[in-house]
Design a protein that fits this description.
41% of the residues lie in helices and 18% in strands. It has 13 helices and 14 strands. The structure holds ligand FO1.
Length: 316
């Protein structure tokens, strides 16, 4: 285990919880490749919800209960923006806003997205690297009965109520891998797909050209690639993953997720309530680990991370 580097692929809150458990054990030996498909422009600023959720969790300042945003944040700037008639359904806290101001201004000065993000992470004392999946703009869009819309319009404004009929990752075909992502995957001793929505959190990461090839090359070198199910007992703990899977023709179960990852991962972690699905997951060629995957506090995050590392042959 000493010296082993691990790469985790993560979306928002569920992914951030496991990333935090892994970071507590691995420190700067952890690289988290984050989904940037949820990113959006608000009030002229670039907001990166999944990057920022992982950042705040690794810095230990995330809002308890919600998992995104900063604990104890206030909303004075947002209320003032609303007073000017600006759209205010996407709530940015005052301290959170400072991150978007700093990031956007550094990008406007010519900074490269990954380098700007790494600088902000260091400023918050985070030892792990949180790597945007690409420096290029990739935007997840969903189609509902009302047509195509940006992800946050569906997720926050429409509260994930409409059925999702189709998903696309605008810009993904032209996105390129960064040197940081490629190096992290080439140096990894193990790779983990966090318990994030497989369709709109892990999906955009895998859509960056070259990403799947690097994962396949890692597997060919004998590097274990494990996924943790975000679906427990047929339900997503948070977010619309269960309804989205069903609406898009997949089974809303840990097995449905394992099927989506067939050929990509060689280990699959499912919750004890789904133990009966283990033989079907194993039949897909994925070694199964059955354990308690619900992360309610720092101790349960660290415990799951420890079990996962042990299953990857990297036990302390
Ligand atoms: N989620 C909400 O439900 N309502 C919000 O107003 C909201 C604002 C917000 C601001 C910054 C940020 O980083 C995340 C925010 N989120 C909000 C969460 C975000 O929509 C989700 O984390 C995702 O994009 C899904 O992974």
């Amino acid at each position: 285990m000493a010296g082993s580097k691990i790469v985790a692929l993560a979306g928002g809150v569920g992914g951030a919880k496991l990333a935090e458990g892994l970071a507590a054990r691995l420190g700067d030996r952890l690289s988290v490749i984050v989904n940037t498909g949820d990113d959006c422009e608000r009030h002229g600023l670039l907001v990166m919800p999944d990057h920022d959720t992982v950042l705040y969790n690794l810095a230990g300042i995330e809002q308890a209960g919600l998992g995104w945003g900063i604990e104890g944040d206030t909303y004075a700037a947002m209320d003032q923006l609303a007073a000017y008639g600006e759209e205010a359904w996407f709530r940015l806290g005052d301290r959170d806003l400072a991150l978007h101001v700093a990031r956007t201004s550094r990008l406007r000065e010519g900074g490269r997205l990954t380098e700007v993000c790494l600088g902000l992470q260091r400023a918050l004392g985070v030892a792990a690297q949180i790597l945007p999946m690409s420096d290029a703009s990739v935007r997840t869009q969903v189609r509902t009965a009302d047509g195509w819309m940006e992800f946050q319009e569906y997720f926050v404004h429409q509260r994930q109520v409409p059925d999702v009929l189709e998903v696309r990752f605008d810009g993904a075909a032209l996105a390129t891998l960064t040197a940081e992502v490629a190096t992290a995957l080439r140096e990894a001793s193990a790779i983990v797909l966090c318990p994030s929505n497989p369709l709109v959190s892990i999906g955009p990461i895998l859509a960056v050209p070259g990403m799947r090839a690097l994962l396949a090359a890692a597997r060919a070198r004998g590097v274990p690639v494990a996924a943790v199910s975000p679906i427990i007992g047929g339900r997503a703990l948070k977010g619309p993953a269960d309804r989205m899977l069903a609406a898009l023709g997949h089974e809303s179960s840990a097995l449905g997720v394992a099927r989506l990852y067939a050929g990509l991962v060689d280990r699959f972690v499912l919750d004890t309530v789904d133990a009966a699905l283990a033989p079907d997951v194993a039949a897909l060629g994925q070694g199964t680990v059955v354990t308690d995957t619900i992360m309610t506090d720092d101790a349960s995050r660290a415990r799951l991370a420890g079990e996962l590392l042990a299953a990857l042959g990297l036990g302390a």
